[in-house]
Fold each of these.
Amino acid sequence: GAVVSQHPSWVICKSGTSVKIECRSLDFQATTMFWYRQFPKQSLMLMATSNEGSKATYEQGVEKDKFLINHASLTLSTLTVTSAHPEDSSFYICSAREQVTNSPLHFGNGTRLTVT
Amino acid sequence: DAKTTQPTSMDCAEGRAANLPCNHSTISGNEYVYWYRQIHSQGPQYIIHGLKNNETNEMASLIITEDRKSSTLILPHATLRDTAVYYCIVRPNQAGTALIFGKGTTLSVSS
């Protein structure tokens, strides 16, 4: 089945630094990928839609200059958390769907970001 | 998008069937019913989805009522590893369409 891989699975960084998270579709191509964020004891919240070759679409309340998304190829999207602060500490999850009729969305295993 | 209503939590004995209900009374004709689950500190795992017919795969069965206003996910023989948060989501199956997660049902399977 379709596999979505995220890297790293966890990262600790200091306040003010930037962190890049990679999302790859391993055995299929994805023109669109989605980034979610999940705080403890809460559900997943959609942050943005990543479009290959064009600008990402951000959900209301998500700062596009803080969460930089690059979808440079059909198998890779990256999320960069710039000038991270402790309140950015969260579980970040990406997802993608095969370009096949009736294919479901598949999720990566998430990246746990801790900003100290 | 159609909203879904799920019980906050359910318990199930190991080996028994787990029947997880979901109400989606405002579902539109082009919206599918999706079920995912999330085990602690992992990404959501796809379980099954359907439009109007009942569906079955190696993980579970999905029963959708004839009026499509509700559905039930059935795990036929629950194991301890099925303990997770289960999400029922209704959404069109289109390439550029994300899934919007509600609070889901926390299923606890005990021996």
Note: The longest strand of chain A covers residues 90-97.
Amino acid sequence: QKEVEQDPGPLSVPEGAIVSLNCTYSNSAFQYFMWYRQYSRKGPELLMYTYSSGNKEDGRFTAQVDKSSKYISLFIRDSQPSDSATYLCAFTGSGSARQLTFGSGTQLTVLP
Amino acid sequence: NAGVTQTPKFRVLKTGQSMTLLCAQDMNHEYMYWYRQDPGMGLRLIHYSVGEGTTAKGEVPDGYNVSRLKKQNFLLGLESAAPSQTSVYFCASSSQVNTEAFFGQGTRLTVV
């Protein structure tokens, strides 16, 4: 079983739609939960970061973590064409190196 | 502020050739990482470093070597390139106190 499973997509939605992106994980040592956004031919950039169960909002983005179910989600409200990118969930523990374990990514296209 | 800079951006190698990928960061980060990204597999950790003069193996270290002689630089070497090493390589760095990892723009390597 892989440590991280991410809905593979691709996902195509009309502008203004609500988007839900999801990952499950199996490693109980993961303590930090992140979403990275990666535009085509660019490096990933951090979008959202949380360490506790519950919801965290930042503008149109909401990160949701359920530690008991080992499940995280990213919701995008009022999606825009500029949100078209690959979204990667990422996890790390409290170890000394803080190396990240990534999901395989979900490619999202928001159609105008 | 350049952040994380990777050199070169593109390279084509013949099987058996060697090369070195250079990563430089100007944020005085302690931790540095090399990942490879392949379609459908997300980013996988090759090697990482927790400080100048230190290196450690990640998830997929075979066929690669690394060195961190200076805090700001992290080199990834391929001694004898194989077609299986065709990938996009990303370097990242982070600090001890902040979980966010900053990524470079990537190096697209093709081994023929």
Note: Residues 94 and 100 of chain B are 6 Å apart (CA to CA).
